[in-house]
Design a protein that fits this description.
With 390 residues, the protein is of the alpha+beta class. The chain is built from twelve helices and eight strands.
Length: 390
């Protein structure tokens, strides 16, 4: 594992920090109460797009893309440092178009599709959502049933998607739909680019138990999509769906964000000594969380080091993801232990020290999102330890 960076990567880290100090000064301060609040979702979206425009101007938004497509062609360690600093600051630095759509278009899109969509993604002109999961197709995504039926020069889409992040702001959707219902479930799927303003598209908010709106359910009723917006081969969308080029995928974001949260808890403990007096053992619990963050950071650096050496991490990336998501839940539980009864108070309550209740509730999904802990353990067991199935 690479424990130190080359001089140019270290200098890049300082450049990113300087940029964040100037362009994202609110960062994640010692208390979440001080953090920037938005009056409406529209205001938050406008701020996010404006910030990503600044990243695009510096060539950072698509820094992992090849240069011929407007990216920076950055190596894995530079990506790692960038992701680490952005996550530590809590900055809105990534979107679905960069992570999924652009890379797939580079490999499978027509020349017209590339020229039309890729520059707008790299310049933060369009916001994309991914239309994958369905009520009966989550971890088993190949079980999806949203239908796309050919009708002349169009396809007609009917069905439902769920857990669509950012769907309420999206200009375009990256849609997986079944075009051959008779084919085996991993076949007969096709990828489409869907204008989210098309007639027949309905987006409904899903408010989570922390009262936060980021997910949506999306319904399609006789939605027409031109055949020119099919990406790749018809009925081979499963093989086009999960392309991510050679992105750094260490999971460093979980550990960088976790580090800042633990630092916030330590500051709160120092400023509110009565909390520690009420529960002296919290000192040891905070120390355990510091150890967690450091261990997780090493797991993430291991993955990036493998990629930098031209190796393909598999179970190593799953180990990082598993540890990071479960660590996140432990960190939020420690926050509840630190705050005691104050931790049950929501934002704006008279005796609230920090809105830890929302953070704790929001952390519940960590072991489900982006691949459940059960799936990660299966990968580690089979591909890492060589254990038999069943």
């Amino acid at each position: 594992m690479q424990f130190s960076h080359k001089a140019d990567v270290g200098a890049f880290r300082e450049e990113v920090r300087h940029f964040l100090d100037e362009q994202y000064p609110q960062g994640v301060p010692a208390s979440r109460k001080e953090r920037r609040e938005f009056e409406t979702k529209e205001e938050e979206y406008a701020y996010t797009m404006g910030f990503q425009k600044k990243l695009a101007e510096r060539g950072w938004l698509a820094m992992a893309w090849p240069k011929e497509y407007g990216g920076g062609g950055a190596d894995h360690m530079r990506q790692l440092v960038y992701n680490e600093e952005m996550a530590y600051a809590g900055a809105p630095s990534m979107n679905m178009g960069i992570a999924w759509v652009g890379p797939s278009l580079m490999l499978y899109g027509t020349e017209d599709q590339k020229q039309r969509f890729i520059p707008r993604i790299a310049n933060a002109d369009d916001w994309w959502c991914t239309l994958y999961s369905e009520p009966e197709a989550g971890s088993d995504l190949a079980a999806l049933q949203t239908r796309a039926v050919k009708d002349g020069d169009d396809y007609i889409i009917n069905g439902q998607k769920i857990w669509t992040s950012g769907g309420h702001n999206a200009d375009w959707g990256w849609l997986a739909a079944r075009t051959d219902p008779a084919a085996p479930k991993h076949k007969g799927i096709t990828m489409f680019m869907l204008d989210m303003k098309s007639p027949g598209v309905t987006v409904r908010p899903l408010i989570n138990m922390a009262d936060h709106w980021s997910f949506n359910e999306v319904f399609f009723e006789d939605v027409r999509v031109p055949a020119t917006q099919v990406v790749g081969e018809v009925n081979r969308g499963w093989y086009h769906m999960a392309v991510a080029l050679d992105f750094e995928r260490s999971g460093i974001q979980a550990f960088a964000g976790g580090r800042r949260t633990v630092e916030n808890f330590v500051k709160i403990a120092k400023e509110n000594t009565q909390l520690v007096d009420q529960r002296p053992s919290i000192r040891y619990e905070l120390a355990d969380r510091c150890v967690d963050v450091n261990v997780g950071t090493f797991l993430a650096y291991r993955v990036a080091t493998m990629q930098a050496a031209g190796r393909v991490p598999n179970h190593e990336a799953s180990a990082s993801k598993l540890f990071g998501s479960e660590m996140g839940q432990r960190i939020q539980l420690t926050g509840m232990h630190l705050l005691g009864t104050h931790g049950q108070l929501r934002k704006g309550t008279k005796y609230e020290i920090v809105d830890q209740a929302s953070a704790y509730l929001g952390g519940v999904s960590a072991t489900i999102a982006a691949g459940t802990s059960e799936i990660q353990r299966g990968i580690i067991a089979g591909r890492g330890l060589g254990l038999p199935r069943g």
